[in-house]
Amino acid sequence: MQRIKTSVALVFAGALLLTGCATGGGGGGGETATDACETVRSEARDISNGAQNALAAGGDPSDVQAAMEGYRERVDAIDKTAGDDAGLSDALEALGEKLDEAAAFAATLPSDPEAEVDADAVAAQQEGISEAAAEVTAGCTSDTEG
Hints:
By secondary structure, the protein is mainly α. Helix content is 79%, strand content 0%. The radius of gyration is 16 Å and the shape is elongated.
């Protein structure tokens, strides 16, 4: 329950920080598009690291699945506040899809903590999430440079 409350709080904090991206950074807060993109990059990195760590830690498959679903909600929140950049939105959707795949994968993990887990399959999920997060970073970077 604490993890859900923390995730919700982070989503709202991220959404508040990202409103500058949706408004072009022109609000009274003084946040520039570069600052907003740094927030998007930071959130994508945090989501990627958290998801990869949750997969690596294993444990109760339903907990891992819930973690992936929570990270997906964070991606959706970023996408809603990231403005009209179609490239960034597509990259965020791709990251969300990788998190959905990881959630489905987590549901197939054994519930017995002593059971062997396919390390290659876990690594493939982690790599997919990492690559998708890198695309979000690249999408936001090219947005501020263009």
